[in-house]
Write a structure and sequence with these properties.
By secondary structure, the protein is mostly helical.
Amino acid sequence: MLQTLRNAWKAIDIRKKIFFTIAIVLLYRIGNAVYVPYVNTEALTEYFASMQTTVLGLLNVMSGGAFSTATIFALSIQPYINASIIIQLLCIAIPALERMSKDEGEEGKKKIASITRYTTVVIGLIQGFAYYMLLRNQSAVYGILTAEGESIWGAIVIILTFTSGSALIMWLGEQITEFGIGNGISIILFASIISRFPGDVSQMISSAVQGLTPWWVTLLMLLGALLMIMLIVFINDSERKIPVQYAKRVVGRKMYGGQSTHLPMKVNMSGVLPIIFAQSIASVPATICAFVPKWQNSAFMKAFDTTSLLYAFIYLVLIIFFAYFYSTIQFNPVEVANNLKNNGGFIPGFRPGRPTSDFIKRVLNKITLFGAIYLGIIAVVPIVIAHFSEAAANSGVSLGGTSIIIVVGVAVETVRALEAQLLMRNYKGFLS
């Protein structure tokens, strides 16, 4: 990784992309410090202090602390993630969208991306209105009351500011993807989570020094995080190699083919996306309760608390579902089998066509199940530990398995993107 970063820094064009990405991330962090008008941040901070173990605390982690302070980027990338989930599901359910995404090539992908943007704005408006109602119910809104009653313009300003912030984050992510080092949305999410890391480590050390958390619990948590990072890196590099043999064929006076190669299939093919998607869906019940004053601290909300066993079970099921869902979208065994057949390739022991696609499908199902269980264990085990261990729950650390796998996964993907750009640059230099 360090060697890749050194090589990337030596290349002038890639160095410019790195500087551009850093500038966008700094702009995003500045936006996280700009408060929305008419919001009493002191009352809001006091309210969020009692909501750290709920879904609101989880959203606060994913926004880099912006959600609890009601800044312009409080909604973070959640509207875009939810819009992506909805559009990808509709691409399977609606034939017109499926044809647009698969048959129309690059132009169809641009149309799908445009639809996703408009959907992001709509979801941003809905979430912005919900957040405004939360502020209003907690008496965290001021300056919008007149002699005639509540001013609607203040509400419009707050809601539109939240929505504009989410749309701006989406645009910043697209700029990183197009002009930076790539993976724009993932890098913004990475920056949001990492920004809380120094404060969490400081709070962990402070809790251990004050005796609130036993020193051995703190040591075990740090050791567990290190082992978890090693496991994530190992699984991200793991793949199942299916041997492929190409038949020899004579064209004119020359003989082509005859070489042996392999078809690589990654164990964790979908990356961190099942975690993000499952998190968005599993948090819906508790989110609704948190925004309704009568339902706060109710038995239903506690059942869907981010440290409850019911939440952990639903979270695990959704991770497995989205792992299969995303691997199905990314990898089509029938298409791969047809490509092998058309190019004269075959898997030893299986006839070209249907038998080959069935074999690839079986292998895909096995490694997807393993990858989904791996993602589920890393995401759910810290929740279970926090549920049964009061010391771990009170340690003040908000970087659980979900956050660690997102951070490590994005870091590995970014390094691979840099390696790909270095490889392209070397090929260009060789050809020129």
